[in-house]
Amino acid sequence: MSNADRACVVLPTYDERENLPAIVPAILAASPDLDVLVVDDDSPDGTGALAGQLAARDPRVRVLHRVRKEGLGRAYLAGFDVALRAAYGRILQMDADFSHDPERLPAVLAASRDADLVLGSRYVPGGGTRNWGLGRRVLSRSGSLYARTILGVGVRDLTGGFKCFRREVLERIDLPTVTSAGYAFQIELTYRALRAGFRVLEVPIVFADRRVGQSKMSRSIVLEALWKVWLIRAARWRPGR
Question: Which domains are present in the chain?
């Protein structure tokens, strides 16, 4: 079977040594058609070295070692580039901390047979969040509504990070020109896919707070999304631009 018939999960890591030994096998167990690409931003806790050990034991695991931390968006773009050059037919992204349940991967892959971009969505029937306080729930829902309203799109969960792209989507949306990070990165990629005319489908997921380790969420990531969405709208990106 060629990589065109397979899917690659791009898994960015920074200080995820406690989660990596469990999340990688869980992803691989979800489907025999899945491979994993760990993208490590020179984690000081040794995550990159651990990822290398996992890759040495399993040919379905690869590692991209980056020399410094440049943010989630840059890590994903680097991983997408590697996966595209490896000719994978579908490319997924998800968190390494079990906030995205690997058991939902089969549902996401199944939906990708009928859609160009599949979003794991907290805000469609059957979706939700777990172990979140009221403030975080309000912030997340408000942020997604804010972005949907400004951009004029019907996607319910624009800020989610559990996605499956057909390779044609990533090839078409001009990844080198994407400058956003964090929530804004998620918004921009989905918006570009919609503007390019691709079919976007949401499937329900329950987003749980991380099991171990420290959250990467920060006030700067939230603030970036608030102003960056206006730049995304103003750019009026079109395929081939």
Answer: 3-235 (3.90.550.10)
Buried b (16+ CB within 10 A) or exposed e, 20-57: beebbeebbebbeebbbbbbbbebeeebbebbbebbee
- How does pLDDT run across 91-110, given as a tens digit for each residue? 999 999 999 999 999 999 99
Cα–Cα distances in angstroms (integers) from residue 159 to residues 2, 50, 154, 230, in the given order: 32, 29, 13, 15
Residues 58 and 27: beta-carbon distance below 8 Å: no
Q: How does pLDDT run across 115-173, given as a tens digit for each residue? A: 999 999 999 999 998 887 787 777 777 888 888 999 999 999 998 999 999 999 999 99
- The answer to whether 98 and 27 are in contact (CB under 8 A) is no
| Residue showing tokens 């729930």 | 137
State CA 148 to chain mean position distance: 18
Q: Answer for the pair 27, 101: CB distance below 8 angstroms, yes or no.
A: no
Q: How many helices (H) and strands (E) does the chain have?
A: 8, 9
Q: Going edge to edge, which strands form the sheet with 200-204?
A: 61-65, 34-40, 7-13, 90-93, 163-166, 117-121, 200-204
Write phi, then psi, for 200 (nearest 5 degrees). -110, 130
128 strand-pairing partners: 206
- How far apart are the C-alpha atoms of 58 and 35, rounded to whole Å? 10
Q: Rounded to a whole number, what is the distance in angstroms from the first to the last CA of the chain?
A: 35
